[in-house]
From TrEMBL:
Family: Belongs to the CorA metal ion transporter (MIT) (TC 1.A.35) family.
Upper taxonomic lineage: Bacteria, Bacillati, Actinomycetota, Actinomycetes, Mycobacteriales
Coiled-coil zones: none
Location within or outside the cell: Cell membrane; Membrane
Function: Mediates influx of magnesium ions. Alternates between open and closed states. Activated by low cytoplasmic Mg(2+) levels. Inactive when cytoplasmic Mg(2+) levels are high.
Protein name from the UniProt record: Magnesium transport protein CorA
Chief location bin: membrane
Molecular function terms, GO-annotated: cobalt ion binding; cobalt ion transmembrane transporter activity; magnesium ion binding; magnesium ion transmembrane transporter activity
Record's bilayer topology term: Multi-pass membrane protein
Catalysed conversion reaction: Mg(2+)(in) = Mg(2+)(out)
InterPro entries recorded: CorA_cytoplasmic_dom, CorA_TM1_TM2, Mg/Co-transport_prot_CorA, MgTranspt_CorA/ZnTranspt_ZntB
Length: 368
């Protein structure tokens, strides 16, 4: 076996990609291992035993490649700080602009290419379980996964408390056939995992929307438009996470043929189909919620009209005795039946009769 001497970090970094290494605000550099979730070396589709640092793992890959083998390293990071990300970028030759995005997060789904490295940003989603929409302020929680893919490495950076890749790594570890396709097979597995979550979340959101729709069109239920607006806000957030990804996955299936094998691109087309399916569902939910807002507004308007009719009917009924009492309350001496023995009972009877007739009329016309 030919000897191999590891390259210094300065030579592993492509020219023109200098990354600053200033300490953080506290002046203490936290080691990369604190942010590292896992680091594995894969040779011919099989994960090699042992634990590695990010630099040692890449050196191991170079040793295997120098011996004529095929290998790559997959390192996973969770919310690394600036120094930790720069240390990883120094070894793997990551572009400083992509490194900045990976540290600060809050990126839209996108795909960028830096020479022979692809940088893919995926938005992860999680459905927040709740008893009812009225009892929660958040339905969909989002996070991010950044994926750096090169010829012999995969670097994943995750932001958020959900969206872990343990199941993906377990699948990669136990499926040598797919792992033999190289680092871009890992990218496919991650994208497939994230998009499957899209479909699961949209199914659960649909259940909430169906319940909300039933409530809006139920005649005896109180309609809270604020709840519909909450759901619409969550659907908008879900759309921002899912819809832009379709364009980037389309580019993966058609472009970058020099980096991605035909077999991996076939798998990515399946992920693209699922993404489009999820995006279409979300667009449909948005339209349904817009219709529910209009229906809820119409229902509230009808309820207000009904209330106004009831108020007007009772006012009309009360106006009769009020008018008669006002007339007979005047200080005139010569008024009909003013001196009569039965004058007072007669006036009360007339009041009662007219009010009864008005009440029956309003009831007949469904005002009361």
């Amino acid at each position: 076996m030919p000897s191999f001497r590891p390259l210094p970090p300065s030579m592993l970094r492509p020219a023109g990609r200098r990354v600053a290494t200033a300490p953080d605000a506290s002046g203490i550099h936290v080691p990369v291992s604190q942010a590292m979730v896992d680091c594995g070396v894969y040779c011919e589709g099989t994960r090699l035993p042992g634990k590695y640092t990010h630099a040692a793992a890449l050196n191991k890959v170079h040793e295997i490649e120098a011996a004529g083998g095929s290998a790559f390293v997959w390192i996973g990071l969770h919310e690394p700080d600036q120094h930790q990300m720069e240390a990883v970028a120094e070894v793997f030759g990551l572009h400083e602009l992509a490194v900045e995005d990976a540290v600060h997060a809050h990126q839209r789904p996108k795909l960028e290419r830096y020479d022979d490295t692809l940088f893919l940003v995926l938005k992860t989603v999680k459905y927040v379980a709740h008893d009812s929409v009225a009892m929660t302020r958040e339905i969909v929680e989002t996070g991010e996964i950044m994926v750096f893919v090169g010829a012999d490495f995969v670097v994943t950076v995750r932001h958020g408390e959900h969206g872990g890749l343990a199941t993906v790594r377990k699948h990669i570890d136990t499926t040598p056939t797919s792992c033999k396709l190289g680092p871009y097979a890992v990218m496919h597995a991650i994208a497939d995992h994230v998009v499957d979550d899209y479909l699961d979340v949209t199914d659960l959101v649909e259940t909430d929307i169906d319940a909300m729709e039933e409530n809006v069109f139920s005649p005896n239920s109180a309609t809270e438009i604020e709840h519909i607006y909450l759901m619409k806000r969550e659907v908008v957030e879900l759309r921002r996470a899912v819809s832009p990804l379709a364009t980037d996955l389309q580019r993966i299936t058609t472009d970058h043929n020099d980096l991605i094998s035909k077999e991996v691109r076939r798998y990515m087309r399946d992920v693209l189909d699922h993404t489009i399916k999820a995006a279409d569902r979300i667009e449909g939910y948005d339209e349904v919620l817009s219709s529910l807002v209009q229906a809820a507004v119409g229902k509230v308007s009808m309820q207000q009209n009904t209330d106004m009719r009831k108020i007007s009917a009772w006012v009309a009924i009360a106006a009769v005795p009020t008018a008669m009492a006002g007339i007979y309350g005047m200080n005139f001496e010569h008024m009909p039946e003013l001196k009569a023995t039965w004058g007072y009972p007669t006036v009360l009877l007339v009041m009662l009769t007219v009010c009864t007739l008005l009440y029956r009329t309003f009831r007949h016309n469904h005002w009361l």
